[in-house]
Amino acid sequence: MSDDGSTDRTPHILAEFKSKVGAHRVTIRSGSAKGFARNYLGLACDETIPGNFFAFGDQDDIWESDKLARAVEWLTTVSPSVPALYCSRTRLIDETGKGVGLSRLFIGRPTFANALVQSIAGGNTMVFNQATRQLIRLCGVTDAPTHDW
User: Fold this and answer.
1) Angle at 9 between CA 100 and CA 50, to 5 degrees
2) Which of 6, 61, 65, 88 could form a disulfide with 124 if both were Cys (CB 3.0 to 4.6 A apart)?
């Protein structure tokens, strides 16, 4: 987890969560305090964070209970040496949690070429493999407008 300079109760909430689930299961780090895009890119580029698959979650994201299982199931069908990204449409909800629709459905195939010219996946739905992470590391932490473009 990365707290990117919260001024609310976030540090306290994270500490409570860590004590609840076990200190060995949660690492909390301080982000760059330069915005969400740099924070996420900093996490992706941090070589001290181990793993085969990676996902970004924001404070207002609510994931489907099987999101990670579905993503990893698909990602394991791709050779680990091939950069791969799992994504889906975002289920939009209002402040009470009531469904109000889905994110835009793109007509074109979700290919690398399409991703170069349009944002085809919301960061809240992305799960990617180590090969993709290596590509992100090559780009480094930049002043991108957002982490999911």
Assistant:
1) 80
2) 61
Domain that holds residue 134: 52-139
| Euclidean distance between CA atoms 128 and 124, whole angstroms | 12
Determine, yes or no, domain membership for 44. Answer: no
Nearest to 112 by CA among 90, 83, 138, 89: 83
- Is the residue at 1 inside a domain? no
Say what the pTM is: 0.78
* pLDDT tens for each residue of 12-24: 888 898 899 988 8
Question: Are 55 and 122 spatial neighbours (Cβ–Cβ below 8 Å)?
Answer: no
Which tens digit of pLDDT belongs to each residue from 87-145?
888 888 898 989 899 888 877 787 777 776 777 777 788 899 999 999 999 988 887 77
Structural domain contains residue 3: no
Pairwise CA distance, residues 149 & 118, whole Å: 8
How many domains is the chain partitioned into structurally? 1
Tokens of 109: 């195939």
User: How far is residue 125's CA from residue 104's CA, in Å, rounded to a whole number?
Assistant: 13
Residue 30 lies in a domain: no
- Contact assessment for residue 17 and residue 25, using Cβ atoms and an 8 Å cutoff: no
**Beta bridge pairs of residue 134:** none
